[in-house]
Design goal:
Layout: E1 3-5, E2 20-21, E3 31-37, E4 40-45, H1 46-52, E5 54-57, E6 62-67, E7 72-77, E8 79-80, E9 83-84, E10 87-94, E11 97-102, E12 108-110, E13 116-118, E14 128-129, E15 132-135, H2 136-142, E16 147-149, H3 160-164, H4 168-175, H5 180-185, E17 203-209, E18 212-217, H6 218-223, E19 227-232, E20 235-242, E21 245-250, E22 257-259, E23 262-265, E24 268-270, E25 284-285, E26 289-292, H7 293-300
Parallel strand pairs: 4-16
Antiparallel strand pairs: 1-10, 2-16, 3-4, 3-15, 5-6, 6-7, 7-14, 8-9, 10-11, 11-12, 12-13, 17-18, 17-26, 19-20, 20-21, 21-25, 22-23, 23-24
Length: about 300
């Protein structure tokens, strides 16, 4: 793993005292990281996360993290070995992945995997928590009483938060062929990609269960009709594509099918984005990692992507 310094520590400021409300300055089509925790639903817009990369939510013992270069959205439990941690942006990249540091021990953590690379916690891994990526409009529909992270920048300034959190530079990176730090900033040598079946910035949902790691590319789930049933680490799981994003649920006793935008099974319908059924039950959302294929392959190798039996 190649680790390099790119920016000074905390040049990208974390959000350490987050404020929440019901208003959002962006648009319904903007993606958010949706977190259901402690009987509360909250949305963390990627527009805000792209400029802060980590939100420390001490009251819920979690850190919401986002690496724009890797397209990597992961929510982590913020306690390790009984010690509560707060995270900042180290200014380093490891294989083009964001490196966080904790302010309590100055250990450094690889955001896409949660692995501690250096410091007193070296060798430990942060515990990923269930979360999803949704368009904001879909979040608001699913969680009418849900809260939204409020902006740190742009308040009282010309153009307001919409100008302060301009996504054009990030959208340009997402659209271009080049990837990694060179693709984002033009720094360093361009990276090559060694496969034709997936693009380096193909969106995947990575699962690590029972010692097994499998990533589900969005395009392959779409080709399967929007729904894949599989077994990972001995657990029966369902991966579903809804509103352009991937969701993974544990489904040990429910056979599901997808029709007209709803999951059907066990005598009812289920919301594919939330896992909630029409009769009030809930599927168990799994702690997946939404990221680009190159970042998953860097961490887990080229043979860990889902392929159907007919491929």
């Amino acid at each position: 793993m190649q680790v390099r310094d790119v920016l000074p520590r905390d040049a990208i400021p974390s959000v350490d005292s987050p404020r929440f409300g019901t208003d959002y300055f962006g648009e319904d089509g903007d993606d958010v990281v949706a977190v259901e925790h402690d009987d509360r639903a909250r949305a963390y817009p990627l527009r805000i996360l792209s400029y802060h990369e980590v939100v420390n939510v001490a009251e819920e013992d979690l850190a919401v993290t986002w690496c724009p270069i890797c397209g990597s959205a992961v929510v982590y439990e913020a306690t390790v070995d009984g010690r509560a941690l707060t995270f900042g942006v180290s200014g380093k990249l490891a294989d083009d992945g964001l490196v966080l540091y904790d302010r309590e021990t100055e250990s450094e953590w690889h955001q896409p995997t949660g692995e501690c690379l250096d410091g007193p916690f070296a060798g430990e891994r942060l515990r990923a928590l269930p979360a999803s990526v949704l368009p904001y409009g879909r979040f608001r529909e699913a969680y009418p009483d849900g809260e939204v992270l409020q902006p740190e920048r742009g308040r009282g300034e010309p153009g307001g938060p919409a100008a302060a959190y301009d996504m054009d530079p990030y959208e340009a990176y997402f659209d271009r062929e080049a990837f990694g730090l060179h693709g984002m900033r033009g720094m360093g040598e361009p990276r090559s990609w060694d496969r034709e079946d997936l693009g380096p910035k193909a969106v995947v949902l990575g699962l690590e269960l029972g010692g097994e790691a499998v990533a589900y590319p969005r395009e392959r789930v779409a080709e399967a009709g929007g729904l894949v049933t599989d077994t990972v680490g001995g657990r029966r799981i369902t991966v579903v594509l809804a509103d352009g994003e991937l969701h993974a649920f544990a489904t040990p006793e429910v056979d599901l099918s997808l029709a007209d935008g709803s999951l059907r099974g066990d005598g009812t319908t289920w919301d594919p984005a939330t896992g909630e059924s029409a009769d009030g039950r809930r599927l168990d959302r799994l702690p997946g990692r939404r990221l680009f294929a190159f970042a998953w392959q860097d961490a887990h190798g080229r043979g860990t992507f889902y392929t159907s039996q007919t491929d």
